[in-house]
Amino acid sequence: MSIISNIERYISLTEKEQKAFETICEKRVVEKHEFLVEPGQNCYCQIYVINGALRSYFLTPEGEEHTIQFALEDWFISDFNSYITQSPASLYVQACERTEVIEIGYLEVEQLCIEYPVFERFFRLVAQKAFAFSQKRALANLGLSATERFLEFETQYPNIVNRYPQYMLASYLGMSAEFLSKVRKKIKGFEER
Amino acid sequence: MSIISNIERYISLTEKEQKAFETICEKRVVEKHEFLVEPGQNCYCQIYVINGALRSYFLTPEGEEHTIQFALEDWFISDFNSYITQSPASLYVQACERTEVIEIGYLEVEQLCIEYPVFERFFRLVAQKAFAFSQKRALANLGLSATERFLEFETQYPNIVNRYPQYMLASYLGMSAEFLSKVRKKIKGFEER
DNA sequence: TTAAAATCTTGAACTAGTTCATTTTTTGAT
DNA sequence: ATCAAAAAATGAACTAGTTCAAGATTTTAA
Predict the structure, then answer these.
(1) How many Å does it take to go from CA B180 to C1' C8?
(2) Is the pLDDT of residue A71 over 60?
(3) Which of A53, A162, B64, B75 meets the CB 3.0–4.6 Å disulfide criterion with A96?
(4) Number of compact structural domains in chain A
(5) How far is the C-alpha of A189 from the C-alpha of B160, rounded, in Å?
(6) Any idea what the CATH number is for the domain that residue B16 is in?
(7) pLDDT-derived band of residue B139, with 50, 70 and 90 as boundaries?
């Protein structure tokens, strides 16, 4: 699905508005393991995935990775806090496969919103959805055990579970990689009965 | 601070826009323990706190409370997922003290945004900030131990720590009330040396 | 002012999840 | 196809945080 038809799930655009949006899109290919954002830099853009797989994560002083978000086809990702405040990032955004992305710059978005307020609306709806989603995640994680968290995540995002290495899933779900391995073994045992 | 001057920290409003906004504000007083939202209902409005203290939480099937958000003076609160999708809430929003609020209805907001796109911008900026904040919270909670989580929260929101009962703080920070009691005792021990 | 209700404290027994060290399996580059 | 590197599995020892139960303190309402 093109980024324009994706936007049109929220709002409808005139020919002119479509063109205006396309001019601020910067297409780019990133290779596996490459970084799109690194801590310290200002995150000057939001990233839209055309195809491939990205994730954002941060590194504790002890060197542990904590995954914040996964992004497959048609998802947006960035260090959002850094993006909206235009202050230094604390996250990495990294390609987990060769990935085609569209970068949408902060200044360009703000300018576009002034010229075409319809985009103000689009980015409002997207931000609201993202916030609602993020609250839902917080909620899921507070109530559930490690096993329950994994099962819920797997039924909701089977494609993510299949596409990212297990240690990344574990760090997203808030458990050690070893423990997720044991959890999955236990689940498999139940299924086989 | 009035809700209008609060809005004007993000955008500036003409006289006419101010009036338009004020007409969709419904002022209301809720007594301690009273609910503004309950699971199952559609959350038809966002709630702005004039003075007092609210919180949102959900109840697990086992009857445990999990606090999602606190809201003191000048904060917004709601079951945001229910609000934006206009689907049944899963959270309670409850008054922890006698509280004056302003309710801002979903339909009224959407109408207002059509008539005055400047509010589209306001609600975009608010939603973006809320999302960034929520990501930051997720990040803080993944990396830290229970003690660290409490210390960080206390330095960032001393007024919340002073104003809500400890068992609510514990359920927000993802630990048992008993353990938070022990954590605080240990911290006090360190401070006294 | 007082009694009931709500909240907080404390300790002992427990458990879900971690850590560490080692082995096995999978992946990817040549 | 082969080999090195990355990822996953496994087991044993450990620990941060939970649960339960009982008592102490604070808050509330009449």
Answers:
(1) 10
(2) yes
(3) A53
(4) 1
(5) 46
(6) 2.60.120.10
(7) confident
Please report, as a single letter, which amino acid is at residue A21. F
Are the C-beta atoms of residues B37 and B136 closer than 8 Å to each other?
A: no
Summarize pLDDT for B151-190 with one digit per residue, the tens: 999 999 999 999 999 999 999 999 999 999 999 999 988 7
The C1' atom of C2 and the CA atom of B96 lie apart, in whole Å, by 25
The reply to whether residue B129 touches residue A84, judged by beta carbons under 8 angstroms, is yes
Nearest-angstrom CA–CA distance, A160 and B127? 26
pTM over 0.70: yes
Mean pLDDT in chain B? Answer: 93
Residues B41-78 as b or e (16 or more Cβ within 10 Å = b): eebbbbbbbbebbbbbbbeeeeeebbbbbbbbeeebbb
- The SS3 assignment for B76 reads strand
- How far B79 CA sits from the closest chain A CA (Å)? 9
**Domain of residue B74, residue span:** 3-116
Q: Is the pLDDT at A193 greater than 60, yes or no?
A: no
The burial class, CB within 10 Å (0-12 / 13-18 / 19+), for B134 is buried
Instruction: Indicate yes or no: strand D within 7 A of the C-beta of A165.
Output: yes
A127 assigned to some structural domain: no
CA angle A80, A161, A41 (to 5 degrees): 25
How many interface pairs between A and B have CB atoms less than 8 angstroms apart?
97
Residue B181 included in any domain: no
Closest by CA to B26, choosing from B9, B56, B48, is B48
Please indicate, yes or no, if residue A85 is contained in any of the structural domains: yes
Q: How many alpha carbons lie under 13 Å from residue A151 in its C-beta half-sphere?
A: 12
Q: How sure is the predictor about B192, in pLDDT bands with cuts at 50, 70 and 90?
A: low
Radius of gyration of chain B (CA): 18
The per-residue pLDDT for B173 is 95
Instruction: Decide if pLDDT at B136 tops 70.
Output: yes
Residue A87 covered by a domain: yes
